[in-house]
Amino acid sequence: MTDTIVVGVDGSETAMKAARAAARLATGMGGELRVVTAYEGDRTEVVEIGSDRWVVSDADDAERVAQLVASDLGSTGVKTTFAALRGKPHEVLISEADRLGAKVIVVGSVRMQGMGRILGSVANTVAHNASCDVYIVKTD
Q1: Per its UniProt entry, which superkingdom is the organism in (predicted)?
Q2: Predicted structure pTM score
Q3: CB-side exposure of 15: number of CA atoms within 13 Å?
């Protein structure tokens, strides 16, 4: 059985730093990497230009982010899969890790200082509630 590592991304450069660290970890462990993007709403917009019509949704945007990161990291040789899942980021990461029986969840350290440390952050909440190991990457 291959070890799975779950990493959360949101399109930011700090999340990409965490994702790269997760890819290195997966390579070192001989594991697979699951790239996950969370979205909270069901917002959908219809864009019409001339006779062309596009439907754009939060889910589509989130899936695009996860797919791009997974594709980028997959080019390094690590086996990657991706998902865009509805919910709060910490809930999505923890439930996906539980569903997959993941060995590690990788998150960035954004807002892990000052008031963010007191009020909470994704990394803080995941670290306190995950049933697997959590690796917090220094991304500032």
Answers
A1: Bacteria
A2: 0.83
A3: 18
